[in-house]
TrEMBL record:
InterPro entries: Put_HupE_UreJ. It comes from the Bacteria. The chain crosses the membrane at residues 169-187, 194-215, 221-239, 246-272, 284-309, 321-338. Keywords: Membrane, Transmembrane, Transmembrane helix. The keyword Protein biosynthesis does not apply. The keyword Cell division does not apply. This is HupE / UreJ protein.
């Protein structure tokens, strides 16, 4: 009787562990599958450049979903008159509007407002450049859709703004996060994990820098498609490893992480190009954005490792959990691959 009770308890714990892990895997994969794409929530971008005393050229880029554009508009608190009509055209997945304005009151000291931002889930990056070379960059959010334009911004202000943009990009860059998650399923030893993540970081930092500085560029659509395919490939390697098979990716994951990291760096560069860079502080903004990406990536890894640690303290994680997670990651990435391939040939 005692043996039967022990067997029943053990069986119940095993089933409970499997169910718990399956639910955890589904919870992790759900946001990725619901978003369908890695960069659905993209920031708006407002650039205001002074070319003559109190005369500015304005570029306002807003995200689009299909033929629909976010209902956003750029406003100033002081007296401003339009010198030219607004010219609109689409580029990729954004609507770009350009026009010229004259500030009847100094632009420095006015509030810039992105009207309609409160009703969205995205942010807006604002950059103002004066004729004397001074620039100001800030990030507006749905909770804070306006800011005061100062006459001068320190390098620290640029740094903080672009660190925040880097963190936000990796937090919403679900394809990059899924790649890291798949990589963590292959690498079980913490030393090898540090080596693989370091290789991935170094690689995407190289191509991010090269692409941002204009030394080496690749078209965005093929890059995004290959990023999705890279996730499928790594997920497949996880399944192979769980079946006892051996491959180059399993024995030398850091080399694979480096190779695919070069590809992911072009994806980060595309996002940074959409944000725009302050012309006088490009190296600083690039460094800050990269630091933000790394901070977000490390935070994601810490959350995953902490979750696994807590689960292991409660239940025994079944062997099937890794395979289930790999299939979940692979299915979402395969969907992205097909979706992006289809978009390339439309």
């Amino acid at each position: 009787m005692t043996g039967l009770v022990r067997h029943t308890v053990a069986w119940t714990a095993s089933v409970g562990a499997k169910c718990f892990w399956l639910l955890l895997t589904a919870a992790v994969a759900m946001p990725f599958s619901l978003t369908a794409s890695a960069h659905e929530v993209r920031p708006a971008y407002l650039s205001v450049e002074e070319h003559a005393p109190n005369e500015f050229s304005v570029l306002f880029k807003t995200p689009m979903r299909g033929d629909a554009r976010l209902a956003l508009s750029a406003l100033f608190s002081g007296k401003v008159e339009s010198l030219t009509p607004v010219v609109s055209h689409t580029t990729g997945n954004a609507m770009v509007q350009t026009w010229r304005i004259r500030a009847l009151e100094p632009l420095a000291g006015q509030n810039v407002v992105i009207d309609g931002l409160r009703n969205t889930m995205t942010d807006a990056l604002v950059r103002v450049q004066f004729a004397d070379g001074n620039t100001w960059t800030t990030r507006l959010t749905p909770s804070e859709p306006s800011a005061l334009i100062p006459a001068f911004q320190s390098g620290w202000g640029v740094f903080v703004t672009y660190v925040g943009q880097g963190i936000e990009h990796i937090a919403l860059g679900f394809d990059h996060l899924l790649f890291v998650a798949a990589l963590m399923l292959i690498v079980r030893d913490w030393r090898k994990l540090v080596k693989a993540i370091t290789a991935f970081t170094v690689a995407h930092s190289i191509t991010l820098t090269c692409a941002t500085m204009g030394w080496l560029t690749l078209p965005s659509a093929p890059v995004e498609t290959m990023i999705a395919i890279s996730i499928v490939m790594v997920a497949a390697e996880v399944v192979r490893m769980q079946r006892g098979q051996v491959s180059f990716a399993i024995t030398s994951p850091w080399i694979v992480a480096f190779a695919f990291g070069l590809l992911h760096g072009f994806g980060f560069a595309g996002a940074l190009a959409e944000l725009g860079l302050p012309q006088g502080d490009i190296p600083l903004a690039l460094l800050a954005f990269n630091i933000g990406v790394e901070l977000g990536q490390l935070a994601f890894i810490t959350v995953l490792l902490s979750a696994v640690y807590c689960v292991r303290r409660l239940v025994t994680i079944p062997r099937e959990a890794a395979i289930t997670s790999a299939y979940a990651i692979g299915i979402v990435a395969a969907y992205w691959s097909v979706e992006r391939l289809d978009a390339m040939f439309l």
